[in-house]
TrEMBL record:
Name of the protein in question: MADS-box domain-containing protein
Organism, scientific name: Gossypium schwendimanii (Cotton)
Gene Ontology CC annotations of this record: nucleus
GO molecular function: DNA-binding transcription factor activity, RNA polymerase II-specific; protein dimerization activity; RNA polymerase II cis-regulatory region sequence-specific DNA binding
Parts of the chain that traverse the membrane: 40-59
Gene3D superfamilies linked to this entry: Transcription factor, MADS-box
Length: 77
């Protein structure tokens, strides 16, 4: 099988680098934060777990997510 017959490039290694522009970095953080909240919510519903997540923005502001609530999970520790 010749390499020209391949339809995809296969598994590629992605370079991770910091986003230099501060505005672009905040936009990327906001999008990822929303995706992470959604995924954590799905996992806690699926497995019935109690989850507390703390994420810090590039500006240093903390964002909290807790299921069933932040207070309920935090009291356990």
């Amino acid at each position: 099988m010749a390499s020209s017959d391949k339809k995809t490039k296969g598994k590629q290694k992605t370079e991770i680098k910091i986003i230099e522009n501060a505005d672009d970095r905040l936009i990327a953080f906001s999008k990822q934060r929303t995706r992470i909240y959604k995924k954590i919510s799905e996992l806690s519903t699926l497995f019935g777990g109690e989850i507390l997540l703390i994420i810090f923005s590039p500006a240093g502001k903390p964002y909290l997510f807790g299921h069933p609530s932040i207070e309920y999970v935090a009291k356990r520790f």
